[in-house]
Amino acid sequence: MLRAQNLIPTLSVSMVLLIIYVSTIPVYIKLVLAVFAITFIFPTAREIMFENKLRKIRVAFYTSLSFSFGFILFSAIQSFSSVDFEIFVGFMLVLFFSSIGIFCYGIPASIIAELVSRNFKKYRAFVSALIHIVFGLFTAVFGLSDYLEPSVFILPTLCSIIFFLIDEYTRKIKNA
Prior knowledge:
Elements: H1 4-22, H2 27-39, H3 43-79, H4 85-117, H5 124-137, H6 154-175
Helix pairs in contact: 1-2, 2-4, 3-4, 3-6, 4-5, 4-6, 5-6
């Protein structure tokens, strides 16, 4: 049943799904964006997303920053290059593209992990970590297409682990 409090999210999600449907982006990206959009239809998912002053959104932002800094630092150390404008541009590119993936794929995966792990009081953190890692590894499916490297799942899995660790840290700070 469609209640007044669900009307705006439902209409917004419907509009986003229509835009995704008529766009010319690849099907697997449409699927990820659709899952993200559908997440907002469910009141429980919205409640998790917006609890504790938008904790999931802050965690996604911190994950994007952490991953980008780590990636650029690792690249700079490997190439022994001096710090110049190229590193800044590289950082901004990595931040932009990782943020898209983390916000569109990581947040819904984390909401699903939280919903499932609530049922396992004693092993909640373990179950949540496992679900985060599985969603990170699921990106290997995208690597099966013609134009992606099969090892493309390594970086998203690393992002999912970082997301989980930051999420657990912020949860403990909130509960302390």
